[in-house]
């Protein structure tokens, strides 16, 4: 399903003007506080009526101010997942899930209760009430309730923002499964680039109510103009080869072998690996005698100098791109230029567990 959003709205001191045509998958609205993310998702949900706009899911029109069509929020067939789970405290988990199903239209394709419970790993929670659940467990139940409402669109407004790092690590794999296994478009709000890198199919970067970039996560998150030099990162596609007795996992990338601290995915799994540009060291020749295990070879596809002492070097590694943030002095001393072969050195411990996600 394709989500089409064309919205203009004015608040005191803030104008929202967005025109988007989003493909299937998880489309993440990404940007700092005050950029318009929640305003936009609330317009899609029907919680805000914009001054002008048209919002459609395929041929289903949710809003068209020109023809005065504005479907009420409870009739928009959206499953909304908030920062807090908003479960009914007097109902157990099974009853909270069934409440979502009760709102599904008769002609809706409703997910199987058993399949939803299995996908979210909440079978052991069905008889418990929300007060006895952890934050991550509550969010899994909230996801299940949204799925069982028979939605044509799922909305998630920073659903991990209220969780600590351990709970985020617990819940992220379930959002990945949601992305990969549910044929419903998902509009997801976040300001955390690590979260975006793991989940997004498409990233929409917002600033002051305007779209400043829109595209695949590797493209947008590697754009210094969007994330800043310190936030620039690359996404490499890698496949798990084996887990070794010394605690390292061996992965294969188009540029060679990548060794990372042991990860939980089985051999054969395809992963996204996020590597910060500031954690990459470059060498014209293949280095030897280093403690770093990861040496990937590529060709320089882009070389940019900032206004200060920094430089951003991008290596083409098969279909992927790997960015390195170095100094201008280093780039000039090495005589770097586009088209040259170069080696990227990456410390295994520089790649954090939350920087590894499933999917291409």
TrEMBL record:
One of its GO terms (molecular function) is ATP hydrolysis activity. It holds the Pfam family ABC_tran. Residues 289-355 form the Mop domain. InterPro entries: AAA+_ATPase (IPR003593), ABC_transporter-like_ATP-bd (IPR003439), ABC_transporter-like_CS (IPR017871), Mo/tungstate-bd_C_term_dom (IPR008995), ModC_ABC_ATP-bd (IPR011868), Molybdenum_import_ModC (IPR050334), Mop_domain (IPR004606), P-loop_NTPase (IPR027417). Its EC number is 3.6.3.19. One of its GO terms (cellular component) is membrane. This is Maltose/maltodextrin import ATP-binding protein MalK. The lineage of its organism: Bacteria, Pseudomonadati, Pseudomonadota, Alphaproteobacteria, Rhodobacterales.
């Amino acid at each position: 399903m394709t989500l089409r959003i064309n919205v203009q709205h004015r608040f005191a001191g803030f104008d929202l003007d967005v025109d988007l045509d989003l493909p299937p998958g998880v489309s993440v609205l990404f940007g700092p506080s005050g950029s318009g993310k929640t305003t936009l998702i609330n317009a899609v949900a029907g919680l805000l009526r914009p001054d002008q706009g048209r919002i459609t899911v395929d041929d289903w029109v949710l809003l068209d101010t020109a023809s005065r069509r504005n479907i009420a929020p409870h009739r928009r067939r959206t499953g909304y997942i908030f920062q807090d789970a908003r479960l009914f405290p007097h109902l157990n988990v099974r009853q909270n899930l069934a409440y979502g199903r009760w709102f599904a239209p008769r002609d809706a394709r409703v997910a199987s209760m058993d399949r939803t419970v299995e996908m979210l790993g909440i079978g052991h929670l069905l008889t418990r009430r929300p007060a006895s659940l952890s934050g991550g467990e509550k969010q899994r139940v909230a996801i299940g309730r949204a799925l069982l409402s028979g939605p044509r669109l799922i909305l998630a407004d920073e659903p991990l923002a209220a969780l600590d790092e351990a709970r985020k690590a617990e819940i992220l794999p379930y959002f990945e499964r949601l992305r990969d296994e549910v044929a419903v478009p998902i509009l997801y709000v976040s300001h955390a680039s690590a979260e975006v890198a793991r989940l997004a199919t498409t990233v929409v970067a917002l600033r002051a109510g305007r779209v400043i970039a829109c595209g695949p996560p590797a493209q947008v998150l590697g754009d210094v103009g969007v994330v800043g030099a310190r936030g620039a990162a690359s996404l490499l596609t890698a496949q798990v080869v084996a887990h070794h007795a010394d605690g390292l996992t061996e992965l294969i990338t188009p540029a060679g072998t990548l060794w990372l601290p042991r990860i939980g995915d089985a051999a054969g799994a395809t992963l996204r690996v996020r590597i910060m540009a500031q954690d990459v060291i470059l060498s014209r020749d293949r280095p030897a005698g280093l403690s770093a295990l990861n040496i990937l070879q590529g060709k320089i596809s882009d070389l940019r100098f900032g206004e200060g002492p920094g430089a951003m070097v991008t290596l083409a590694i098969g279909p992927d791109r790997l960015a390195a943030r170095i100094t201008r002095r280093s780039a000039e001393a090495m005589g770097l230029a586009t088209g040259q072969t170069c080696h990227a050195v990456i410390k295994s411990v520089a790649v954090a567990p939350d920087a590894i996600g499933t999917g291409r």
